[in-house]
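Backbone-to-sequence.
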């Protein structure tokens, strides 16, 4: 078998921010054998490797040296469990939103609040995608992966994934060291709507179907969030900051309307969108980038900009929040960073 490598491949349409980017070489392995072949090739040639999914939470530089691999494993299937439980196996390149809608349409509960989140299944555990009171970690049962250094396949249980708010081991100890090939999710045939977030309950009837909840979530997201197919963006550009209780207390005294959410560990989560909004930056535009006019947490790309310009723009937004509130915002999308894979020492 020989891989179909593309040279100087244009990735501008493969990242939802629409940043201009070319890969020195690009391949989209369609099966596990092809994936393995691509990883072997990278090791043999000593090329830097960049893994790409749906490109919805990624900031791409203008040039990616070596090889960019975007797995194209697109199967998903169900496995009946006990007590109304259904195990969902979804390969890395299954489009997350399409899977969510297909599961909701089958009356399976668990992922409906996560409708319309862009991206592929393989990337979902990296930032532990979350919305409307649900996180991927609430439904994940296992993550199948391949270690890049020695090709070893492994299955991680959720406890081994160190899931946190927009965080996991795939952003930490395993960053750049594994390729995620499949997720296993645990859904339920027994209705269990979670409607506690915002005005979700007001959007559906008393006992909604999973599909009705998913459609309500889609409607809310469409009202607030820009469609990446129309206006480049990567969803929330900053995480909601977790601050010490005494700082949160001082801020609430000074700004009684400030949204704040005490956490089990004693810290308090603040709404980054509110903080940016209060700085008067909603709708602010400079050069090719702007703060979205309906959700200040989302930075948008009007076209013609670069990753460096975006990072500079984001820095200015974060500086304003730090100066006004003394709160530091952390970036949410990851920077694509090509890594060299060295064979494991035996
Ligand atoms: N707010 C403002 N102005 C704004 C934006 C928000 O005042 O411009 C206020 C809202 O009124 C609300 C609070 O901030 O009181 C929180 O806003 P919202 O409910 O819109 O949620 P968020 O905290 O801004 C998070 C996630 C979103 C997710 C929503 C719904 C993060 C970083 N973002 O946003 O996730 O869809 O909750 O669950 O946690 C994403 O990660 O890309 C994303 C869109």
């Amino acid at each position: 078998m020989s891989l179909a490598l593309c040279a100087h491949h244009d990735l501008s349409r493969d990242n939802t921010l629409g940043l201009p980017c070319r890969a020195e070489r690009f391949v989209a392995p369609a099966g596990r054998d092809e994936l393995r072949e691509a990883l072997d090739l990278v090791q043999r040639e000593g090329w830097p490797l960049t893994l790409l999914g749906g490109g919805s939470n990624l900031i791409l530089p203008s040039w990616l040296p070596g090889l960019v691999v975007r797995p194209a494993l697109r199967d998903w299937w169900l496995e009946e469990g006990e007590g109304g439980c259904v195990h969902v196996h979804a390969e890395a390149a299954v489009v997350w939103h399409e899977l969510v809608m297909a599961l909701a349409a089958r009356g399976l509960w668990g992922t409906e609040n996560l409708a319309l989140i862009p991206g592929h299944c393989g990337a979902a555990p990296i930032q532990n995608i979350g919305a409307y009171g649900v996180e991927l970690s609430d439904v994940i049962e296992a993550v199948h992966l391949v270690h890049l250094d020695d090709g070893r396949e492994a299955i991680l249980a959720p406890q081994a994934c160190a899931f946190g708010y927009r965080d996991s081991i795939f952003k930490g100890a395993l960053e750049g060291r594994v390729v995620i090939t499949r997720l296993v999710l645990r859904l339920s045939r027994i209705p269990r709507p979670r409607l506690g977030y915002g005005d979700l309950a007001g959007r559906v009837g008393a006992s909604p179907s999973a599909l009705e909840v998913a459609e309500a979530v889609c409607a809310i997201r469409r009202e607030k969030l820009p469609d990446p197919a129309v206006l480049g963006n990567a969803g929330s550009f900053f995480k909601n900051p977790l601050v010490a209780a005494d700082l949160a207390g001082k801020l609430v005294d000074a700004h009684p309307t400030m949204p704040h959410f005490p956490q089990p560990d004693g810290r308090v989560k603040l709404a980054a969108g509110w903080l940016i909004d209060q700085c008067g930056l909603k709708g602010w535009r400079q050069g090719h980038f702007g703060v979205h006019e309906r959700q200040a947490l989302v930075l948008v790309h009007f076209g013609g900009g670069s990753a460096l310009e975006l990072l500079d723009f984001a820095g200015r937004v974060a500086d304003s929040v730090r100066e006004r509130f003394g709160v530091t915002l952390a970036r949410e999308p990851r920077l694509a960073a090509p890594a060299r894979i060295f064979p494991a020492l035996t």
